[in-house]
Structure formats: C-alpha cells, structure tokens
Specification:
alpha/beta; 8-stranded mixed sheet; 14 helices; 36% helix
Length: 517
C-alpha cells in the first residue's frame, strides 16, 4: 500500500490538468487516512508537495505582476489584495479561500486560470481569481479553462476607455498618508488614479519634507511602506516610487492654482476635517484645476456615501462634492443593509469599541469634550458617536431606529462595532451567518463585508484589512425566539476606511474598470 501511495503522489506531481490534479489531491488524502505510510516516506512526499505549491505561488506572483504592470489588470482572491504579496502569504490566502467556500481550491488551479486571463488580452480590470476558481468547481458541464475564462469574462471587452484622474490630498495626517501609500502602490501604468500633489499648512523646507517623508515611510501601526520615498527640496516635492508628488503649502483652498503644477480636472480628497459643510468644501472648487471634492468625514449638506450601499444613487456627472461618511458608518451600514433587506429591523443599539485617536490626549489634560481629556492609552473612555444616526443617510429606512454610543479603548487601531437589533422576522444564528456569508461571496457588498471563519479573532488580527467590515460569525448571538440578535463587526478604522475612500474616489472620478467579483 505504501508503494501505491507513493505512486499516487508521483502522479499528482507530474500532472498538469486542473481537475485531474485536484482528484489526485483528494484521493491521496483519502488513502493516507486509511493506510499507514512510513514517516520518512510520507515526510519526503510532503516536502515535494510543498515545493510544488511554493513554485506555483512564485509563478502566480509573476503573472499577477505582469497583468498589473503590463495591462492594468488587478487580481484579487476573495477581495484580498494579491499585489506585493510573498509566497507564504499567497498560499495562506488560497487556504483561506478553500475554507471560505468549503471547496478544495488549490494554488495550481489559481495559476492555471491566471495564465488564461493573461492570454485573453483584456482591458483594465479587477478580477477575483478566487471566485473564478470557485465557479469552475460549480460548473456541471466541464469545459476547458480557456473556454471557461472566455465565457465568464466576455463582457470585459465591451468596457470603454478609461481616462486617468489626477488626485490631490488636502491634508497629510493618518488617513492622508494611508491614502498616499495605497494610491502610489496601485499606480501601475498610471491608467487609473494619479497622486499629483499634497497640500499642507506652514512652511515647506528640506527639514519639513524629510519629516513628512519619514512619516510616510514608517508607520507604527501599519509597518513600513513597500516602496521608496525620497525628498526633492529644490522642487518642494516627495519622490514616491520614482514619481514626483508636489507638496504645496496653503492656508485656504481657493488660493491654490493647481494648473501651475500641471494638474487639471482633479479630485481633491480633503482629510483635514477643517471643512465639513457644502459651503466650506465648495471653496476647493474655486481652485484652478479641481473638479471634484471628497471629504473623509461625515459632511453636512452633501451626499454621505458608503460605497457599495448608496453610491449609485448619486451621479458624478451632476454632483461635485461628496462625503465618505465615517469609518464606523462604513463598517456597520453594509451589515445593516443585509439584515434589513432579509429580516427587517424594528430598532436597535450600536456600541462601538473604538481605538483611541489623535483627538484624545496622550496624558491627562484639558479637552473640550467630557472624559476625552484623560490619557488615551491608559483608559477606556465613554464618548459619543454619530454613526447610529448617520446610517440613515445611506439607508433611509433606519431613520430613528438606532441609538448609539462609543467607548474609546487603549489600542492605536482596530475597532469593534456591536449591533444589538430587534428583528421584524425571526432568524437563528445559523440563518444570519449563512446570509452574511452569501453577501460576502457574491453581490454588491463583496468588497465591503469580509466573513471571518476564525473563533480566535482579536483586534490586532484585522489591522490591514481592506474591507470596511469584518463579520465575526462565531460571535453572533440570537435569542430563543430569533427576534433579538447581537452582531459583532470588526473594522480597521484606518486602513479599511481608506480603501472605502479610494473606491468612492474612483467612482466619482469615473475611473471605472471592468470588475468580476
């Protein structure tokens, strides 16, 4: 029997067929459960198998890079970014994908489909290779990988031309620097969004530029920037990944002439928090070279958008000023939409366990708000949040339904929203989790909801997650009658929110690629 198992393993390592290779994996697993193999022989075969997996991951990384830099095609794996990942990270994400869809997805299948995507000569696109592999499994009429990929992506060739959009960051704090990192990491051939300038207050000199470069380069929460940042003091600019980004000093928006820097028809992303209403934000539109304004905070008198939920209700050809709402609103609104659409919500309460922010004091000192004057890293601080009422701006059916409060806790990033809801139609824990998993896998909210499969999840685990909401399935509670439910939604209040801002910026800039989720 040992000899038979060794032959099985050798056949697996020599076969290139997608479906056949999968069959050998399953057969090998079954056989090794039922029969003994010598420890050394089994270990040697495991080594050979892992070497094959890692070799396949290397090939996948190469294809991912070629598609991005040659064709502006971005591959993701169930919404997880694949660019700039190493071999171990790629294999780990493939294992997560297999657990998520409860199908034996393998790195070899991903490579074979990625090869075919490269052969298709598609226009700029964002494609979920995990979903494609999953659907290949579901296909009850087996066809070649070429025919399968052609059929699934046939609409891509009907997508129109994309006009690149210049971007200006007005402010360079926590969100501003993360936006700069993510925009520059995804510049590719420059066919989408191009970061052209950063606006700050105060003097600009070599010392100031070096300090700002250092803060962009190194981050205590999110780690080192995977790129290069240098300073050109003569031109008052940062050189990020070899591209010049002008640093402009200004005390007010309307005093800047962006066209003097070669910037035209740009979107300005205001992350200062200084301008919050339509009139104040409209001052940006008085600047030469600006055509759209996006606020990274809740706004008054302007559309408050949670991308994926209500962005299609506003036409960027008719609206020039947008708000991306708050990080907490972006976390809870997609989840609330799923619950409202499927079970109905009578009323509820939101309690957000939120990381401390720069608004709080490092040590005890005066503060204009109650309790926030106490040392942020030493205390849990009860404070208010407007996220409960802000949900209604994206989902009007929640008007007056939610109360809300917040507790700031001694962590620098990574937050948790707890939703205590009374449902119109009863639902068990299993029903709610199944519905949430469905929305995380397919539909309009796949970029917004990540479904957690771990019963060991803690706040540091979700740092760096691009989805604004991480649904903790193990924590879901439903009462005996199914009418009261408690949902736990984690969110990276910096990184996840930053990606929502970028998604919205692409929408209002009309930089719309073909997407396959």
């Amino acid at each position: 029997m040992v000899a038979f198992l060794l032959i099985l393993t050798d056949v697996f390592l020599s076969t290139n067929s997608l479906r056949n290779r999968l069959k050998w994996v399953l057969l090998l697993k079954i056989k090794t459960k039922n029969f003994n193999m010598s420890f050394n022989e089994l270990y040697e075969k495991e080594l050979a198998f892992q070497a094959e997996r890692r070799r396949a991951a290397v090939e996948l990384i190469r294809i991912i890079s070629d598609l991005w830099y040659d064709d502006t095609i971005e591959l993701v794996l169930f919404r997880n970014q694949l660019n700039d990942r190493n071999v171990s990270e790629i294999i780990s994400l493939v294992d997560y994908a297999s657990d998520f869809v409860e199908k034996p997805i393998s790195i070899f299948e991903a490579v074979e489909i990625a090869r075919e995507i490269k052969n298709q000569k598609l226009p700029p696109s964002k494609l979920d290779i995990g979903k494609l592999v999953y659907e290949f499994h579901l296909d009850d009429k087996p066809k070649s990988v070429k025919d399968f990929v052609e059929a699934k992506l046939k609409e891509a060739k009907n997508s129109g031309e994309i006009e690149p959009k210049d971007v200006v960051l007005y402010g360079f704090g926590r969100i501003g620097r993360l936006l700069a990192r993510e925009l520059m990491a995804r510049t590719g051939k420059g066919n989408l969004m191009r970061l052209r300038a950063i606006v700050t207050r105060g003097e600009i000199n070599e010392s100031i530029l070096e300090k700002r470069a250092s803060l962009l380069r190194n981050d205590s929460v999110h780690g080192d920037f995977h790129g290069t940042v240098t300073v050109d003091a003569d031109k008052n600019s940062l050189i990020i990944n070899g591209l010049t980004v002008n640093v402009i000093s200004a005390n007010s928006p309307e005093e800047i002439d962006y066209t003097a820097y070669g910037i035209f028809d740009a979107v300005v992303i205001d992350n200062t928090g200084a301008y919050r209403d339509k009139e104040a934000l409209g001052r940006h539109l008085k600047s030469k070279g600006i055509s759209k304004v996006l606020l990274t905070a809740p706004g008054k008198g302007v559309p408050n958008i949670v991308h994926g939920v209500n962005h299609l209700e506003y036409d960027p050809n008719k609206v020039d000023i947008f708000s991306a709402a708050s990080c907490t609103t972006n976390a809870i609104t997609p989840v609330l939409k799923v619950i409202e659409d499927n079970f109905g919500v009578e009323y509820g309460h939101l309690e957000t366990i939120h990381a401390y922010t720069n608004d709080q004091n490092l040590v005890d000192n005066m503060h204009k708000k109650y309790r926030r004057g106490r040392a942020a890293a030493l205390n849990m601080v009860i404070t208010e949040t407007g996220a409960g009422s802000a949900v209604a701006k994206a989902l009007p059916s929640f008007q007056g339904k939610l109360t809300s409060n917040a507790i700031r806790v001694p962590v620098p990033n990574g937050s948790l929203a707890i939703l205590n809801l009374r449902l119109e139609n009863a639902a068990s824990k299993e029903t709610i989790n199944g519905m949430m998993k469905k929305y995380a896998l397919e539909g309009d909210l796949v970029e917004q909801i990540k479904y957690s499969l771990s019963n060991e999840l803690v706040s540091s685990d979700i740092v760096g997650t691009a989805a604004p909401a991480i649904f903790d399935s193990y924590a879901t509670i439903s009462s005996n009658d199914g009418k009261n439910v408690i949902l736990y939604v984690w969110y990276d209040n910096e990184f996840g929110y930053t990606h929502q801002v970028i998604r919205l910026a692409r929408y209002i800039s009309k930089v719309r690629r073909f997407n396959y989720y």
